[in-house]
Write a structure and sequence with these properties.
five-stranded antiparallel sheet, single chain, 2% helix, 2 domains, globular, four-stranded antiparallel sheet, Jelly Rolls, 550 residues, mainly beta
Amino acid sequence: MRIPLGLAQLRSCLIALAVTSVAAGYASAQIVISTSFDGKATNNSTAPPDPNAAVGPNHIVECVNSNISIYDKSGTLISNTGNNTFFGITTGGDPHVIYNEIAQRFAIEVIGSLNSSGTGTAGFAVSDTSDPTGTWHKIVINVPGFWDGFGGNGIGYNADAWTVHVNGFSNQFAMIPYASNPNLNYTFYTAPSGIHIGRPVPMTNAPAGAPLYFIEGNSDGINGQGGTTGQLRLMAVTNYLGGSPTYTQQTVQADTVSASVINNCWRDNQLAIIGQQGGLVRWYLCNTSGTFSLLDKGTITPSGGATPDDPTIAISPNGSLGLNYLAVGTSNTSMMLTGRAPTDAAGTVRTPVAAVTGATSNGRLGDFSACVVDISSSGQPLNAFWACNEWLNTTNQFDWRTHLSKFSEPIFEAESLTINASSDTVDTVADSNYSAGSADILRANAVGDLVTYLVPGVSSGTYTVAVGMKKNTSRGTFQLAASRADQNTWSNIGSPIDEYENTSGDYAEVVIGTWSPGTTNDKLFRFTITGKNASSDQFWLSVDYIRLTK
């Protein structure tokens, strides 16, 4: 049970708002890392690790060149399997793992073999459900040559099929339809001359019948050689299920320097792209609805003269971006995390935060990392991110580690805030699906019951206010209001929100409305019960967190 404190007692309980001085290209507030742990460690025989990871409702699957590891979301290792054992073939490393939000399955692709005649194989596996500890379906894809270097292997998907880019030299890819295909039967396509098959795009919420997308920059491997400087090239492939694919290519002039696509993610007709060029991380946000066009772009300059490596990017349901990269200095290398909200100033990201720092390798670093959205226990994408990257325990390139972190825009966890007032019992309930593992429950009994939180040091400006919650059959309807902590002048934010849902629990973030405080000081946020759904059996209220986005 949580007990409210008087205002005179609050000063010793304040939690500092993460605000830092900013440089050009940075928004004002840092991202918040809520979970962080080491993943796979060196086996002293393979370097670099080439780590990447995918996140499902309850598990994280991490791949390195030699192994596949499964964790729960608290970082507990569940299993660790060698790639050769998992696939049942001799593998050549460079694995990619992805979680398909539409099919709700994990998939892994890995290099198989490449012989002297130029033919090769790729291993491909799909989990039977969203639980990666269960059955996997596995195949070997035969291709006329496999490794294409920076042009990129990888996995994409839409509502109808997986796509595996297996040979960038010859613009070849495998298409594996979902329907009635437990054996993962595939069709192998070679694009016509002049068609560029770049990196596959994971199309997280694409409708049925949507094209398969591939994206590349002018400097990407064999395909990008000789392209127009700064150009991004989008390839849309249709009629792939019918056996006679149609290829439609569009380009956009995205930069004045060479553009590279190291990683990408698509959601709601927005394609987020990230690469590195000229000692900078370069990110782009493009529109794919109708004419392929550039919506926004920006750069990140690693501090202290460091150079970037292995950048990755993801886009969340509310349009926020998460970014992950290495900052490689002369003596140490850091895994850096940042992001931006749709309301942040154009071209900016939040001030990057180091998730882990280690030595700088005496060899080369890997080619892969990961940044993906978190998934709720009910299978819904959340407005939070997971990142995976490598770091070095010592300068020995074989003494590597991997690291995984969950992060998001600045949020105020309800269970960590001071309760200024409450009409009823407020319990902090543990649940791994909440953003920081727990949330507050107001055991309200009637209309007018309330709980008020103090949020310290909120600056003036206009904010989008969102609340994280768990909807279920015992919830009421609330009205959110805000006031300065030293006054009692309340302003309602948005309209009443009904937390009732006829499920055992749906974890959601709900945008309440906009709010414009005129001064910088401590603020109070009051949740008042205004009623309940006729089907609800209680007036209870769930508050996971309050998110303030400028």
